[in-house]
## 1
Amino acid sequence: MTAAALEGRSPTQLALRRFGKNRRAMISFWLLIAVGLSTLLVPLVSPHGYTIQKLENRKQPPSGTYWMGTDFNGRDLMVRSFMGGRISFAVGLLATSVSLLIGVAYGACAGFLGGKTDALMMRFVDVLYGLPHMFLVIIVMTILGRNFLVVFMVLGCFSWMTMSRIVRGQVLSLKEKEFVEAARGLGVTTPAIISRHMLPNILGPVIVYATLTVPSVMLQEAFLSFLGLGISEPQTSWGLLISDGAGALNPLRIFWWLVVFPGSLLAITLFCLNSVGDGLRDAFDVQQK
């Protein structure tokens, strides 16, 4: 595309164009879409419900009837794996949304207000960084119990610190720009300057970090479920399925499908999310041509 054709494009449009040229990121993006659609559609079209137990079919290996085999209670592992994907995706997206809401608001206020307020707010973030993150999550989960709402709220509330630092740094670099000074001169209020002028200009780094936060949160949820502190029955997630499969490993017989299939779906999803995040980071890099 010629320079003349690029003149009328916004920085976001140019970044998305660069992202579209990144082959690995695009393959990961479409593979991620395929996995996401499968988590929505497979449980709807499968003749086997994810809670239907058929004890006579317990621990069956993959076959023409059960493509991914069955679990300890004779339930279709394929349906349960994709239902688990729904929960894992939902936890990742919702927890990331909570993290963004807190981190962006906190970091933008700290960076724009500056001075002692900024120093005090960021020292609080430093204190939180010094605390054992996962240990605190486990304590809170133990107190509040195991359910979907608690999982994503707790993970989101413990994942916002890095986002606040990123947003603060971006706001510090923007608040002395001419368009911000002009808004101040016109009497625009501080909340309006932050929401209307600051946040649209830091959208790129926020999107990039959000994309990288989703797999981190999904991995944390899988770890908690593996420990028995995350999602509980009858709901399921990839971490809970892997935990159940790992419990079936023994020297006499290895029920490999109970670990391989949900583990593979989790690994593919995390790889794709990280690849998409890396692609977006490169695309929004102002040094890219």
## 2
Amino acid sequence: MNNFEWHNPVRLVFGRGTIPRLRELVPPGVRVMIAWGGGSIRKNGVWEQVIQAMAGRDYTEFGGIEANPQYSTLMRAVAQARSEKSGFILAVGGGSVLDGAKFIAAALEYPGAEPWDIPEKHAKVEKAVPLGAVLTLPATGSEMNGNAVISRLETRQKLAFGSDKVMPVFSILDPETTYTLPARQTANGIVDTMVHVFEQYLTRDTGNPLNEGIAEAVLKTTIENGKKVFLSPGDYDIRANLMWSATMALNGLIGVNAAHDWTSHGIGHELTALYGLDHGQSLAVVAPNVLRHKRDAKGVMLARYARNVWDIGGGDAAKAAMAGVDRTVEFWNSIGVKTRLSEYGIDDRDFGFIAGRLCGADGKLGENGDIGREDVINILRLCI
């Protein structure tokens, strides 16, 4: 194993009936901006619980953060927070709301004139307003990491940034808040969770069997409960296992000492920016074909995945590896997620543009830095 350092300061409060804990977790004596998304929290009882817990506190609110949080929307929130002198951001909603809150928190303390520099130019986040979260949609793992993804409509960009300065002070996860999620959002979250693991696990063997075993446990738990949740959407244990799996997939633990890829996410972000695909939808199209394209380099871990997660036997490791990818696609199809670009009416007209924006003249992606512009185009061709 290589040397590594890992620190995760997020206080995670998990379980039913935990939203009232906001009373003790939100710091006193500070004005709080409550950030939320499309309004589902006002229908499923979450908003009422939050407001009851915040009774007597000084708070304002900002709603309307999109599923792919838009820079223009978030900058309106920044302006409001500045004028109201907000000193704490409370995100209530899914991972996109939390991503938006992270950008708001960073932009409020950003000394430059253009906060878009944070995701576009990788400007370092030196300071951020503290934030917390009440999570209602398991998918992104944003509740326990310092990552966020922000979109900009006018430039058709979807870009990520990361900083330990925007890790939540606390995150409350009550699985009961997910009972009323639409099937599409539940399915997208299952895909997102699995691909987060893929990007850290289906790379190369780094001699860390403990973390590889944890990654496999997350995948098996997600698959097992993903098969059940659509038949029993109000089953607490099923929802709880999916919620905890999504957090574990990207809280940094399985990524310790791992070789990271993130090619699927990079290409997927471009598909979302150009065509409006849901994040989970884009990953379901791209990830299997990244694995197919790099089947030789990823062969050892793909075979392990096939055997340990899907119980695929046989002596031919290469065949087992590809069978594991096929089983993954079959599973995603079975929960209603499409896995071909043609199913969304998307052709190859923008493939060169996507590859150029991701790789430039000679940029490389992948855990080995060997996925270039032509590779991206070939991966996209496999996606059709």
